[in-house]
Design a protein that fits this description.
The structure is a single chain. The chain is mainly β. The protein has one domain (18-266): Immunoglobulin-like (Sandwich), CATH 2.60.40. Helices cover 3% and strands 33% of the residues. Strands 1, 2, 3, 4, 5, 6, 7, 8, 9, 10, 11, 12, 13 and 14 form a 14-stranded mixed β-sheet that branches. The longest helix is centred in the first third of the chain and has 4 residues, at 4-7.
């Protein structure tokens, strides 16, 4: 991920001869509002399918990620719901201030671009302490875009559950899970965004930043490969297709996450 571009614009090549087709995800409507507690045990999640496992940002020809990451998505008239499961044998996080540069910790990231001709898009990062960074970009950095850190997501709900112990290297952890509820009306201060209807299509991608001791640069693992080490190429993001819940109800329920004692690392956050 070309995170340095967040702090200073950098000219970055974005052409990749072997760029794979962006992935797609059928996002089903939730029957009722979800409880955001980070544990992913709300019955509604059983009707949503997991994404494919994350791969290296440059694509599957690069070494496979050391730890598994995957996500689920649902929607209703009020929110876009995102769940993520991150395998992690040693869960760490130190940043506690909102709008810190969250990728300095291991993190989970969401990139969203509504339909339309406007080049702007939204980014959200979260760590295992449930500390978030929300920002709007008026266009990609390579086209002179600037990050707007003054955008805070009104009504945002987030929560993290720790399946292990935080900041304790003496034991082996299972990982951490994340739940996010983005209100549809949160985007209107930056773009003319209306809530989606069944059949609509947005662009979306997910990223995970993982640091390894003795390795000077972070690993970047994503859902839909970018082809380059740069998340800010929206045309390489995946497609998010909004579906009704009728088809979802006929799907076989997904198996639940194995029953392992989970601790919420910090209280669920709700935006102002």
């Amino acid at each position: 991920m070309q995170h340095l571009a967040i702090l200073a614009s950098v000219a970055i090549p974005v052409v990749c001869a072997a760029q794979a087709q962006p992935k797609s995800y059928d996002c089903y409507r939730a029957n009722a509002p979800l409880r955001i507690d980070g544990k992913l045990d709300d019955p509604a999640w059983q009707t949503a399918h997991w994404t494919t496992d994350f791969v290296d940002i440059e694509g599957p020809l690069k070494p496979a990620p050391r730890f598994r990451t995957r996500a689920k998505i649902l929607w209703d008239d009020q929110y876009l719901y995102i769940a993520a499961e991150l395998e992690e044998p040693d869960i760490k996080a130190i940043l506690t201030t909102h709008d810190s540069v969250i990728f300095h910790d291991n993190d989970f990231e969401v990139f969203l671009k509504p339909p339309g001709d406007a080049p702007g898009y939204f980014e959200f990062e979260i760590n295992a302490l449930n500390t978030g960074w929300d920002l709007y970009l008026n266009r990609p950095y390579r086209h002179g875009g600037k990050a707007d850190n003054t955008w805070d997501i009104p009504g945002l709900k987030t929560a993290v559950a720790i399946r292990g112990t935080l900041n304790d290297p003496s034991d082996k952890d299972h990982g951490w899970t994340v739940e996010i509820a983005f209100p549809w009306n949160a985007f209107a201060s930056r773009l003319m965004v209306t809530p989606p209807k069944t059949g609509d299509e947005w662009r979306i991608n997910f990223s995970r930043v993982e640091w390894k001791a003795g390795q000077p640069k972070e690993d970047n693992w994503v859902w839909s490969p970018q082809g380059v080490i740069n998340m800010h190429v929206p045309e390489h993001w995946g497609y998010l297709h909004f579906r009704d819940n009728a088809d979802a109800e006929s799907r076989k329920a997904e198996p639940r996450i194995p029953a392992v004692e989970a601790q919420t690392s910090s209280p669920a956050r709700s935006g102002a």
